[in-house]
Design brief:
single chain, mainly alpha, Tetracycline Repressor, domain 2, DNA-binding, transcription, HTH_TetR
Length: 187
Amino acid sequence: MTAAMDHIAEVGYAKATMKSIAEQAGLTSAAIYHYFPSKVDLVTATLNARIDEVMGRLARAVEFPGTLREHFVALLDEAIACVRDYPSVARFDATVYLESARYPDLGAAVARRERAENELYSQLVAEAVRAHEVAPGIDPRAVVDMLTSLTWGLAHLSATTTAERHRAAVGATEALLAGILLIERND
């Protein structure tokens, strides 16, 4: 699965073949076909395994009493650790997400990922609303969408630039959340 993730992150879903994935994994195509009858089966199993692992890690990262800001910073820090452990995970995820429009068989796995992320952020935002951390009149759904947009943007950055730039952008996001990034001007 790691070889499939790395290979698809490198060449894309359309250009990836079971033979090339097998070669990258040091296996024969027959060995892969024994467990996965098709490329879509291998890719969806790989994506689902990564979703389970990454979302589990993110959920564990916020298992402490804290504010939404503290929880989101913990999520960002754990996301960096996930990218460090699986350098091609963000590119693989983005590739599968984009190519799911052309290959509907991938759509169920992509939708599962979106639901898992939405559930986690919705839970955190609901807790923040109960704790009166979210200003009155702010739509909780909008906060979930904002958190999703930030994480997807940071994931895109991790897939398209250096690890240092990604870490710096996460640091700037954390500073923004802490209220220390922007300086109020008194003009």
